[in-house]
Every structure is written in C-alpha cells, then in structure tokens.
Specification:
two-stranded antiparallel sheet; mainly alpha; elongated; 9% strand; single chain; 138 residues; 2 strands
C-alpha cells in the first residue's frame, strides 16, 4: 500500500495575517474580491469572505455596506492588534500575576529594558496610547 503525503496545514492564524496585511497595505476599504486579488488570487473568494467575517466578529476589522456586499477596513495597525491579542489572553487569567511574571521572565534583556522604559514613562502608558484611567468616569 502506497503512503500518501499528509496535507500541509497552514500555521494557525496565517490566513488571517495575510488578509490583514492586504488590508493594511490598502489605501481604503477593500471588498473580498479586492482582498483576494491583493493576495494574488491564491485563495477562493468564499475563503477570503469567511476570513473577513471572522475578523469582523473578533473586532479586528470594520465593514461597511457597498452594494450587495461589504468593504472591510482594519481597526488597528499590527502593533495594536498584537497588544489587543495579548490583553485578550491576559484577561482569560483569573490571577494575572503568574502570567505576567512568566511573560516578563521570558523577555530578552533588550525587551525587558524597553518595557522598563515604557513603564517608567509619563503616566506609565505607551507613547501615543491611552493613559491609565483615561476615559474613566469620575
């Protein structure tokens, strides 16, 4: 009996990352067909539409009605999306201390220094980002 080679699966999140990259590179909202074209046509339009719908459901993209379909725009840049994902994972932890301690213990010395500098900055927030307590009702 001849062995068949297993189907190569894409790494988790690869398709979403490709679609987001296409949206980030665009100068405005894109339809699923335009995203498909930007990706070189290597994905079916239905696959692109499914990915865009999932990204919309996750809050990573916005969509607006254009004709009978939608056009999609990213809600955040790459750094903002990474920060949102990190926050989402942290929010899953009932006790954040151990998760943060593990994260910090695995940082490179350069990243640890960068984090120290960011935390020591004015108000403890990231440059250009919201400051702690911003928007809190008093």
């Amino acid at each position: 009996m001849a062995e068949t080679s297993p189907v190569r699966r894409r790494p988790s999140g690869e398709l979403e990352a490709s679609v987001l990259a296409a949206l980030w590179a665009a100068e405005g909202p894109l339809s699923p067909a335009a995203v498909q074209s930007a990706l070189g046509g290597r994905l079916a339009r239905t696959t692109v539409t499914t990915i865009l719908t999932r990204l919309h459901d996750k809050g990573a993209v916005s969509r607006s009605r254009v004709g009978r379909g939608f056009a999609y725009s990213p809600l955040q840049d790459s750094a903002g999306l990474t920060a949102r994902r990190m926050r989402h994972e942290l929010d899953k932890q009932p006790d954040r201390g151990p998760a943060l301690a593990r994260f910090v213990s695995q940082l490179t010395s350069e990243d640890a220094e960068l984090l120290r500098n960011l935390l020591g900055g004015a108000g403890g927030g990231a440059p250009g980002g919201p400051q702690p307590g911003a928007g809190d009702a008093s």
